[in-house]
Design brief:
Its main location: membrane. By secondary structure, this protein is mainly α. The protein has one domain: Rhopdopsin 7-helix transmembrane proteins. Helix 3 packs parallel to helix 5 and helix 5 packs antiparallel against helix 7. The N and C termini lie far apart (64 Å).
Length: 307
C-alpha cells in the first residue's frame, strides 16, 4: 500500500518549480558572464545556483521515494545515501554563500587581493573541504552504526528521525558556515558604513561602486535573515512533527531556494538590466586596472546600442 496524497504531490511540484527557478538563475548569470559583467562574483554565483539546483534534484528524489515507498519497507542504505547527497549539496550551497560573503569582506580592505588567482583557488578549496569533511563524517558514522547493528540510530529515515543520526544531517553541518557567514556580512556592512569616505576615494581605481556594493551586501543580509528563520523553523518543525517528509518540509526547502534566487539573482542590478533590456550600470565588481579601459569602452558601446 503506497503512502500518497495530494499534499505530497503539491510539495514535490513546489520543489520542481524552485529547481526551475535556480536553472533560470544559472542561465541569466552565464549570459552576464558572456557579456563580461559580474566577473569572478558571477562565477561564484553560478556555483551557488548549480549546487542549489542539485540540492533540489536530490530533495525531489528523496521525497518521491518517500511518497511511493511501501509501508514499513525502509532501507537503511538507500536512506543514508540519499541523506548524504541532500546534505552535501545543501552544505555546498551554504559554503558558496560563505565564500561570496568573504569576498565582500576582503573587497573594501584589499581590493587587489580579490583579483588574485590564489584567492580564487582557495575559495573553491574551502567550500569543497568543509562540505566533504562534514558530510563524509555523517556517512562514516552512519555505516559504522549499521555495522555495529545500532539500527535504532539510522533505521527511521522518513518517520521519527529526531532521535537518529539523520537529524544532525538535516542541517547540523550547515550551522557553523551559516553563523560565520552572518558574522562576515555584518562586519562587511559595518566597515562600509564607517569607512565610506575613505572607500569612495579608493574604490574608483578598481571600478567599484560603493553605494551599489552596500546595497548588494544588504541583500545578502536579508538572505541571512531568511535562512535564520528557515533553520529555526526547521528545528521547530522537528520538535512538533518528527517526520522527515511532508508538505511543510518541502515548502520550507522550496522557500530556502526561492530566497536564494530572489536576493542573489533576481534583484541584482545587472540581472534586472538584462531582463528589462536597460543599459548596464558601471560594473560594481573588481577589474584589473588594465581592464578598466576595455570595460568602459564595452559599457559605452552597450549604451549606444540601447539608445
Amino acid at each position: 500500500m503506497y503512502q500518497t496524497d495530494a499534499k505530497q504531490i503539491v510539495g514535490i511540484s513546489l520543489l520542481v518549480a524552485a529547481m526551475i527557478l535556480q536553472i533560470v538563475c544559472i542561465l541569466l548569470t552565464r549570459i552576464l558572464i558572456k557579456l563580461e559583467y559580474g566577473g569572478y562574483m558571477a562565477v561564484m554565483r553560478t556555483w551557488l545556483f548549480l549546487s542549489s539546483t542539485m540540492e533540489h534534484v536530490f530533495y525531489i528524489i528523496f521525497h518521491v521515494n518517500y511518497t511511493y515507498i511501501k509501508s514499513g519497507d525502509e532501507q537503511p542504505d538507500t536512506c543514508i545515501l540519499m541523506r548524504f547527497l541532500m546534505s552535501f549539496c545543501s552544505t555546498f550551497t551554504t559554503m558558496w554563500i560563505l565564500t561570496i560573503a568573504a569576498f565582500y569582506l576582503v573587497m573594501p580592505i584589499k581590493p587587489e587581493k580579490c583579483l588574485s588567482s590564489i584567492v580564487r583557488f582557495l575559495t573553491h578549496c574551502v567550500a569543497l573541504t568543509w562540505t566533504f569533511v562534514s558530510c563524509l563524517l555523517y556517512l562514516v558514522i552512519a555505516f559504522r552504526l549499521k555495522a555495529d547493528n545500532a539500527l535504532e540510530y539510522i533505521h527511521s529515515c522518513w518517520n521519527d528521525i529526531s532521535n537518529t543520526l539523520h537529524f544532525y544531517n538535516c542541517y547540523g553541518n550547515e550551522i557553523i558556515p551559516f553563523l560565520v557567514t552572518a558574522f562576515i556580512l555584518v562586519n562587511a556592512r559595518f566597515r562600509i558604513s564607517t569607512h565610506k569616505r575613505t572607500m569612495s576615494s579608493r574604490m574608483p581605481e578598481y571600478h567599484v561602486n560603493v553605494t551599489q556594493l552596500r546595497r548588494t551586501i544588504n541583500r545578502y543580509i536579508v538572505l541571512i535573515v531568511f535562512l535564520f528563520i528557515y533553520y529555526i523553523g526547521l528545528y521547530i518543525r522537528f520538535v512538533f512533527d518528527k517526520r522527515g517528509s511532508d508538505l511543510v518540509m518541502m515548502a520550507m526547502q522550496c522557500g530556502r531556494s526561492v530566497a536564494i534566487a530572489v536576493t542573489v539573482c533576481l534583484l541584482d542590478k545587472d540581472v534586472l538590466a538584462l531582463i528589462f533590456r536597460r543599459p548596464f550600470s558601471t560594473p560594481m565588481l573588481l577589474l584589473h586596472p588594465n581592464e578598466i579601459g576595455l570595460q568602459s569602452l564595452s559599457t559605452e558601446l552597450t549604451l549606444v546600442e540601447c539608445t
